[in-house]
């Protein structure tokens, strides 16, 4: 049974050690290939929808994940701003990053979230200046919806740095955008379907009332510290837990949950002792400074009761979490635990939640979150649908980076189709990675 819960592809902590995905590279200098204009529909109508996600802009450029790519991002945004055919720009989560912070750093520096977002906007002014210009021109609808790294940013604080932007929230910390001009399209970050990144307002309700950050928030803090330390030899080892053979299903799941933490810590080792109080919080209702041991399940006697300090009962409340997060088709807890590090299962949620769901009319779905840009066509009951992932803008992302999706709706002509195209902007050259189409 242990093998079921081993990390089979990559560890989904916010180092995002991603599998390589096939993609086209940017054209070399001197190529005879024609220049691609991804924002032209060949006519005069303003009807194209552009989706960007996972910029992960931070306040401190010494450890932020998107620094070198910011200039290119600003240039692409300038192209979008000038494009006469673009109708909407959708920022599908993780624009700003409240999670990628070393363990020993006070995220708010003793101040508050408003101060943090203003520091992020100032540190990345070339990007925010263009987005604000697009908003103020009022020619292109600009929409923001949260990802996991900015799920805690209040609507008021988003508006503080992006005044007038359209914001989409449904459940706490998540949102799905359904453009009025294209009812068959749904855009969301995708994290609500993932055990470690879906908002969790339940597990810590007694110890930290009001918090809703999931376990991945803490693994991300540890991952940031690992990256800064460049640690290869861990400073400590976790105590061994053995299955509670006299326990119930909850105890079996608690053991599997412990296994996922063991494998996470193996991938992102840090030099600190696991009993050291190193994770400074003062964020999202958390006020204490925590150790790794506070996060990992423990057992007082071999084979005895498996308990937790933080996220107590997280293995038992997944069903309720999915309901609170407005998940249409629920995933069983054993499956959610087994697949929490498997990117393919996040992509497949587009099919589960939308395409094969009889209560859904969606035919095109765009997620971010995984940092793996791709297009996957699905056919269910003879009906074609298209899933796209908008990739990322991280400086160092295995595979490709600087990705974006462009959707062009069909016309009234019977031969016309809705186009979904995936691009990257590496070396500031637009390269088409993939495309697909359908008519609805």
Task: Write the SSE topology.
Elements lengths: L47 E5 L17 H13 L3 E6 L21 H11 L1 H13 L3 E4 L10 H7 L4 E2 L8 E2 L7 E4 L26 H15 L19 H19 L11 E2 L8 E2 L1 H4 L2 E2 L6 E2 L10 H7 L8 H6 L4 H13 L8 E4 L6 E7 L2 E7 L13 E6 L9 E7 L6 E8 L2
Parallel strand pairs: 1-2, 2-3, 3-4, 6-11, 11-13
Antiparallel strand pairs: 1-14, 5-6, 7-8, 9-10, 12-13, 14-15, 15-16
Helix pairs in contact: 1-3, 2-4
Describe the structure in your own words.
The protein has a single domain (2-195, 319-438), classed as Metallo-dependent phosphatases (Purple Acid Phosphatase, chain A, domain 2). Helix content is 25%, strand content 16%. It contains 10 helices and 16 strands. It has helices at residues 70-82, 113-123, 125-137, 155-161, 215-229, 249-267, 292-295, 318-324, 333-338, 343-355; strands at 48-52, 86-91, 141-144, 166-167, 176-177, 185-188, 279-280, 289-290, 298-299, 306-307, 364-367, 374-380, 383-389, 403-408, 418-424, 431-438. Helix 1 (70-82) packs parallel to helix 3 (125-137) and helix 2 packs parallel to helix 4. The longest helix has 19 residues, at 249-267.
Spell out the key features of this protein:
disordered N terminus; single chain; 7-stranded mixed β-sheet; 25% helix; Purple Acid Phosphatase, chain A, domain 2; alpha/beta; 5-stranded mixed β-sheet
Order of helices and strands: EHEHHEHEEEHHEEHEEHHHEEEEEE
- What is the strand arrangement across the widest sheet? 4-3-2-1-14-15-16
- The CATH topology is what? Purple Acid Phosphatase, chain A, domain 2
Distance N to C terminus: 44 Å
- Tell me what the CATH architecture is: 4-Layer Sandwich
Backbone structural class? alpha/beta
Query: Helical content, roughly?
Result: 10-25%
- Rg, rounded, reads 22 Å
Count of DSSP E strands?
Answer: 16
The CATH superfamily is Metallo-dependent phosphatases
Number of domains: 1
Which stretches are poorly predicted, pLDDT < 50 over at least 5 residues? Answer: 1-32
Shape: globular
The first-level CATH class is given as: Alpha Beta
């Amino acid at each position: 049974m242990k093998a079921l819960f081993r990390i089979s592809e990559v560890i989904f902590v916010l180092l995002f050690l991603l599998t390589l995905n096939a993609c086209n590279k940017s054209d070399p200098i001197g190529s005879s290939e024609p220049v691609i204009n991804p924002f032209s529909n060949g006519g005069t109508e303003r009807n194209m929808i552009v989706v960007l996600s996972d910029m992960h802009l931070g306040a401190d450029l010494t450890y932020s994940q998107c620094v070198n790519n910011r200039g290119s991002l600003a240039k692409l945004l300038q192209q979008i701003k000038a494009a006469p055919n673009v109708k909407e720009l959708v920022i599908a989560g993780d624009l700003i990053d409240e999670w990628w912070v070393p363990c020993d750093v006070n995220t708010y520096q003793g101040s508050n979230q408003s101060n943090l977002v203003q520091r992020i906007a100032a540190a990345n002014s070339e990007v925010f200046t263009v987005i604000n210009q697009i908003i103020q021109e009022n020619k292109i609808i600009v929409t923001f919806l949260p990802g996991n790294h900015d799920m805690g940013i209040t609507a008021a604080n988003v508006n503080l740095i992006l005044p007038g932007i359209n914001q989409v929230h449904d459940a706490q910390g998540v949102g799905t955008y359904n453009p009025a001009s294209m009812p068959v399209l749904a855009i969301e970050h995708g994290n609500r379907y993932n055990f470690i990144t879906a908002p969790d307002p339940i597990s810590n309700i007694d110890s930290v009332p009001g918090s809703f950050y999931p376990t991945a928030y803490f693994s991300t803090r540890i991952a940031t510290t690992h990256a800064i330390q460049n640690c290869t030899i861990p400073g400590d080892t976790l105590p061994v837990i053995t299955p509670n053979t006299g326990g119930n299903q909850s105890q079996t799941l608690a053991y599997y949950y412990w296994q996922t933490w063991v494998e996470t810590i193996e991938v992102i080792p840090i030099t600190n002792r696991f009993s050291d109080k190193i994770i400074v919080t003062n964020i999202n209702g958390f006020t204490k400074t925590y150790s790794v041991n506070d996060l990992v399940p423990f057992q007082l006697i071999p084979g005895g009761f498996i308990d937790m300090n933080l996220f107590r009962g997280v293995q038992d409340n997944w069903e309720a979490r999915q309901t609170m997060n407005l998940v249409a088709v629920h995933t069983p807890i054993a499956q959610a635990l087994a697949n929490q590090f498997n990117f393919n299962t996040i992509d497949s949620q587009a099919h589960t939640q939308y395409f094969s769901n009889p209560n859904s009319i969606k035919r095109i779905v765009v997620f971010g979150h995984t940092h793996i840009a791709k297009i996957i066509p699905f056919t269910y009951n003879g009906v074609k649908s298209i899933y796209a992932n908008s990739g990322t803008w991280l400086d160092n992302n295995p595979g490709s980076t600087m990705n974006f999706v462009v959707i062009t709706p069909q016309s009234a002509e019977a031969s016309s189709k809705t186009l979904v195209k995936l691009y990257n902007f590496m070396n500031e050259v637009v390269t088409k990675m993939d495309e697909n189409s359908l008519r609805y």
